Amino acid sequence: MYDGTVAAELFDHLVRAQILLWNAVDGRLRDVHDLPLSWFEPMRVVAGRDHARVHDIATTLLITDGGASKLVDRIAAAGYLDRHRHPDDGRATWLELTGSGRAVLTAAEKTFHDELAHRLGSTMSVERLREMTDALASVRRQAADPESVGPRP
């Protein structure tokens, strides 16, 4: 049976843990690489695709296309991203990491993983991390599809 108090407590812990973890990782990336986490995340999206678009960043990171476009503008101004015209659609652009973008991302990924190992790996077993990952993936899937949770009470 649903318990609103337990659900509210879960919500509080989930949101506050996300904020603390974001701030810790962001601080470490800024200190070591002068790279904010808000740039690191879109750069990872671009690195993971052959022909990334602003919309790919928006959908992957659950932000608006306008917000993703502004991030891309800032990252490109820093010299980490290039925009290329889509060969078949002159209105669209593809994104690509520059050489310096690839270099900083490669170095920052090590720092990112080191910080996660410190913050998460040192406090939980791999099995527990997998359990939490599966549980949060389920919550995320259901939150993304309002039809999957049924009608409101």
From TrEMBL:
The keyword DNA-binding applies. Pfam families: MarR_2 (PF12802). GO terms for molecular function: DNA binding. Signal peptide: none annotated. SMART domains: HTH_MARR (SM00347). Residues 7-138 form the HTH marR-type domain. Keywords: DNA-binding. This is DNA-binding transcriptional regulator, MarR family. It comes from Williamsia serinedens.
